[in-house]
Write a structure and sequence with these properties.
Blueprint: H1 2-34, H2 40-44, H3 46-66, H4 73-90, H5 98-124, H6 129-148, E1 151-155, E2 158-162, E3 176-180, E4 185-186, H7 194-212, H8 215-225, H9 227-232, H10 237-260, E5 265-266, H11 270-273, H12 275-288, H13 293-309, H14 317-333, H15 335-343, H16 346-356
Length: 357
C-alpha cells in the first residue's frame, strides 16, 4: 500500500512537471512575441510545432506504450484534417462563431480518425513487427490516395460524391465543390492559433498520461512486455490493443484538424500526409526515447526548429541537422552514455550528498 502511494505521488509529480514545461514554454514565447523578439517566420511555425508535438505524443502511445510499430500515423492525421476542414467549410456560413465551429471540427476530426483507426486496427493488430509496420504504411498511403480521387460538392439538393471528376457531381449552378480531388480543399477558415495548439497539447498529455497511469494503461504495458503472460492472466489483448491504437489515431486526427485550419489550401500531397511524414513523426518518438512522452515533445520541437534556425548556414544546414540526429540517437540509446547519465543524474548526486553528510 505504501509503495503504491509513493509510486502514485511520483507519477503525479512527473505529470505536473510535464504540464509545467508546456505552460512555461507558452508564457516565454508569448513574452517574446509581445517584445518583438520572435520573427514572423518563427511565429508561422508555432502552430505546426504544436501539431508535431501532438503527433509525437500520440504515436508514442502506440510505439512506446503498446510496443507496436506503426507507420500509418500520417494517414490518421489526413483523415482528421480533411474531416475537420470539410465540416468547417460546410458550416462556415451556418456557425459564425469561429471558436465553436473549430471545437466541433476537432471533435469530428478526432472521431473520424478514431473510427478509421478502429476499423484498420481489427485486422492489422493481429500482425507483429515488420509486418505490422508495412501494413500500416500501406493503409496510410491508401487513405491519402483515396482522398486524392475524392470529389464532394453541395447544392440545394444536398451533398454529392464522385470519384471521377468535379463535373460528374452534377451540381446546380449555385452549387459548390468542397473537396476537389488532388486540389483538395480551399478556403478553410484559419481558426488555428498558438494558444489553441497549446491547449490541445495539454489535453493530449492529460489523456495519454492518465491512460498510462491507469489500470488500462498497466494492462497495455503488460501486453507490450509479455503478450503470452498477459493472456495467461486473463487480459483481453485485442481489446487493449484496439483501445491504444484508436486513442492514438484519434489524437492524430485532432492534430490534423489543427494543421488543416492553419492553411488556406489543404491537399493530400506526399509532403503533408505521405510516407515521409509518418517517418518524421517516428523519428521524433525514437530520438526522444520510446515510451518517453516528455522526450518526444522535446525532440519534436528541436527537430522542427533546427532546420529553420540553421537556414543562415545554407551550405551546411543539412549536415549539421544530420550530426544532431546522430548525437541525439547516441545520447538516448548508447549503453555507456545511458550508464553515464544515471551516474551523474541529479537524484543520484543528491543521494550521495546525503550519504556523505
Amino acid at each position: 500500500m505504501k509503495t503504491d502511494k509513493i509510486k502514485l505521488n511520483k507519477n503525479f509529480r512527473e505529470n505536473i512537471l510535464t504540464y509545467g514545461i508546456v505552460i512555461l514554454a507558452y508564457i516565454v514565447i508569448q513574452i517574446m512575441i509581445g517584445t518583438g523578439n520572435i520573427s514572423s517566420l518563427m511565429q508561422g511555425l508555432l502552430v505546426p510545432l504544436c501539431t508535431y508535438v501532438i503527433l509525437a505524443v500520440s504515436l508514442n502511445l502506440t510505439v512506446g506504450i503498446l510496443g507496436e510499430l506503426s507507420l500509418g500515423h500520417a494517414g490518421f492525421m489526413c483523415v482528421g484534417a480533411f474531416a475537420g476542414a470539410f465540416f468547417s467549410k460546410c458550416m462556415k456560413d451556418v456557425i459564425t462563431v469561429g471558436l465553436l465551429r473549430f471545437i466541433l471540427a476537432i471533435l469530428i476530426g478526432g472521431i473520424c480518425a478514431a473510427l478509421i483507426g478502429f476499423l484498420i486496427g481489427m485486422p492489422v493488430l493481429r500482425l507483429k513487427g515488420d509486418y505490422l509496420a508495412i501494413v500500416t504504411l500501406a493503409f496510410g498511403e491508401i487513405i491519402k490516395n483515396v482522398v486524392n480521387v475524392l470529389y464532394i460538392g453541395k447544392d440545394s439538393k444536398g451533398i454529392h460524391f464522385s470519384m471521377k471528376d468535379s463535373l460528374s457531381l452534377g451540381l446546380e449552378e449555385e452549387g459548390e465543390v468542397i473537396i476537389n480531388g488532388a486540389q483538395g480543399i480551399t478556403g478553410t477558415p484559419k481558426d488555428s492559433t498558438f494558444t489553441i495548439g497549446i491547449i490541445l497539447i495539454l489535453l493530449t498529455l492529460f489523456i495519454v498520461l492518465n491512460l498510462i497511469n491507469s489500470r488500462d494503461g498497466r494492462a497495455i504495458m503488460s501486453i507490450r512486455d509479455n503478450l503470452i503472460a498477459a493472456e495467461s492472466i486473463g487480459i483481453n489483448v485485442t481489446k487493449y490493443k484496439l483501445m491504444a491504437f484508436s486513442v492514438s489515431a484519434a489524437l492524430a486526427g485532432v492534430a490534423g484538424v489543427l494543421y488543416s485550419h492553419n492553411l488556406n489550401s489543404l491537399m493530400a500531397t506526399p509532403k503533408n500526409f505521405g510516407y515521409n511524414m509518418s517517418i518524421m513523426i517516428l523519428v521524433f518518438v525514437v530520438l526522444g526515447g520510446i515510451g518517453n512522452i516528455r522526450g518526444s515533445m522535446i525532440a519534436a520541437v528541436v527537430l522542427t526548429l533546427l532546420p529553420e534556425l540553421l537556414r543562415g548556414l545554407n551550405n551546411y544546414r543539412m549536415l549539421i541537422y544530420a550530426i544532431v540526429l546522430i548525437i541525439m540517437m547516441l545520447f538516448n540509446w548508447s549503453p555507456k552514455l545511458i550508464e553515464l547519465r544515471k551516474r551523474f543524474s541529479p537524484k543520484r548526486l543528491l543521494k550521495k550528498t546525503r550519504e556523505v553528510q
